[in-house]
Input
Amino acid sequence: MGARDTSWRGLVRPLLLPSWLMIGAFAALPVLLMLVYSFLTKEFRGGVSWSFSLAAYDQFFVTRGLFGDEPPSLEWTYITIFARSVWQAVVCTLLCLIIGFPTAWFIATRAPASRSIWLFLITIPYWVNLLIRTVSLKFVIRDTGPLNEALRAIGLIDNPLPLVNTNLAVQLGLFYSYLPFMVLPIYAAVERYNFALSEAAADLYASRWTTLREIVLPVVKPGIIAGCLLVFIPALGAFLAPDLLGGAKTFMIGSLIDEQFKGSQGNWPFGAAVSVILMTLVLIALIFYARAAGREGAR
Output
């Protein structure tokens, strides 16, 4: 038995080699290329010049006026777009948590035979491409769409609600896109929860809110954190919802990056620099979370 274990131990690295090659080719290499491009110079006619420059990062943080001859000052345009993106991602995460936790709890507490049906209903809209779903949502909330027509038919409004090209429309798009990413991890955590703990708390005269706060939430906390990360990170870099449902006042960081790589007039180094800044801040947040979780686990 020991010899067999030793032989398998020697095959671990060769067996992992294809996985490492895939990770390197499709994850590490694109990130490395993006980092390299962020330090290049934009060509006047499009493309890049292979000469080292910090102009892309300077463009994000500093402005020198329209003709570049004014004293440097902080560039609030891109910082505002970034702040708006963070705000929209945070609100989307909170909304998904508020709706997703009760939904996951409901599904996990159904009879085992019916859980698959509820999970099927949660995931079936996501069999359709995100672009098609976002365009469909725009038709639903437009001035002459089903939502406004239904509200007018029942007498709640006289004039259509201007929902398209607003922050609310972008938020609806983000919420609709990423809600299952919150429901499924929490569902997995609740499904493993030992409901005998809640029964024991009830026997000790604990209220439902006390049981939820002191017993349920600490146990399912890993699922909640996983769901929040799975929603917040893609929502932060989303560009379809802002582009299709929003306007100039709802521009987000993902849209800014997307614009830099369109056509021959795009600014690839600046788009890569914005991507690096976004990725760096997300990684810093994840590192702080990992350290906090490690300290909590050590206790």
Remarks:
- The beta strands are 41-42, 48-49, 62-63, 73-74.
- Residues 128 and 134 are 10 Å apart (CA to CA).
